[in-house]
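Thread: quick sanity check before group meeting

JM: Hey all, I'm pulling together slides for Thursday and realized we never actually wrote out the predicted structure for the chain we discussed last week. Dropping the sequence here so it's in one place. If anyone has concerns about the input, flag it before I start.
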Amino acid sequence: MAAVCAARSPKSGDASPARPSASAAFRLLSAPVAAVPLLLAFVEAELPGAMDTVTALSDFHITEPAFKAFYMIFTCVFCWGALVFGSMNDEYYESDEYRNAGGNGTQFWIYQRVEEEEEGAREELWRDELRREIEEKVTEVKGLKGAVKEEELV
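JM (edit): ok, ran it. Output follows.
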């Protein structure tokens, strides 16, 4: 450690060499220890008589262009099937058994029917409220007419 400290250059203006802190000394000593696994990996690869890595191959091999062609064909067939079978008419969904409740095949008819029912209920409430307001106005007008007649009599 003294050799490491003596090898360091002194700070500018100082006559004595700088003394490293304890953590710096620990880092200097632990650096070679940290590199040991990496060095062992390099040395092990270069040892004479060491076993070479053997890649186990299966009996089935496919080249990269064949691999790409296979998946391209798979994708094309899948897309073709989605387009063809997706555009076909289904006898059940086109039948009266499915559509007798008012369906049009989009499944939005349920929400449209509920909205129509809610709209009808709102209109009925609005009519009732309007009828009540008209009745209140009529009673007020009758009350005012009665008050005017009483004033005329007095």
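AS: nice. The helical segments are 2-7, 22-34, 36-46, 64-86, 91-94, 96-99, 109-153. Residues 109-153 form the longest helix (45 residues).
JM: adding both to the slides.
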